[in-house]
Specification:
206 residues, mainly alpha, three-stranded antiparallel β-sheet, 7 helices
């Protein structure tokens, strides 16, 4: 018998996550995982394992973000003594973030060690070797194929849309008022590339 789940003792989630405390900070974690995937796809395309593992991490981060938002909405509904529907919540989320159903399926398959399509019936991932040219080196290319089509969509593009749509969702549902946000680590990455701004690092800003 598994141990009973303890009730919320008011301990902040940062006790385990260090920095992640709400949906917005979990979104920043998603952006981090997408950046890791992008770097691997662009800089190390000759290796399959890092590419596949990074893609799974993106899906798990997006699934986790869905859990953070769901929990926040449930707490808000409970505080207002309002009804909360899991079915309506996920239907609305998948409508606003079309890529989420794919991420949920991949994350659940990874977590539960068995194929779980859920709302991404017939979808699959592919890693294909693509011959390069004078502009692009040869390498593995990670893509997603959705049900009813044999068209492979580049994961790099899909993941960027995922981040953008998640942010629009967070704004639309009152989790943030910022119309646009760039995580600190990404600002620092850009600053290191172009040298056009000071880094936000150290004890005060890191």
């Amino acid at each position: 018998m598994s141990p009973s789940r303890p009730k919320d003792a008011g301990i902040p989630p940062t006790t385990h996550t260090a920095l992640i405390k709400d949906p917005v900070s979990m979104w920043e974690k998603l952006v981090w995982d997408v950046e890791v995937f992008r770097d691997i796809q662009c800089s190390y395309p000759d290796e399959r394992q890092p590419l596949a593992y990074a893609a799974i991490n993106v899906s798990i981060a997006s699934w986790s973000l869905g859990q953070w938002v769901q929990s926040a909405k449930k707490r808000a509904a409970r505080d207002k003594r309002e009804e909360f529907s899991d079915t309506l919540f996920w239907a609305n989320l998948h409508q606003m973030i079309p890529e989420q159903a794919m991420c949920d399926a991949i994350a659940n398959t990874s977590k539960h060690s068995r194929y779980e399509a859920r709302d991404w019936q017939g979808g699959e991932v592919r890693i294909d070797w693509v011959e390069g040219n004078e502009d692009v080196p040869s390498g593995w290319q990670f893509s997603h194929v959705h049900s009813g089509t044999n068209v492979a969509k580049l994961a790099q593009n899909t993941f960027q849309s995922l981040c953008n749509n998640w942010w629009r969702y967070l704004v639309a549902h009152g989790h943030t008022e910022d119309e646009l946000r760039t995580p600190r680590f990404l600002n620092n990455k850009i600053a290191r590339i172009f040298g056009d701004r000071p880094l936000e690092v150290g004890e005060a800003k890191g």
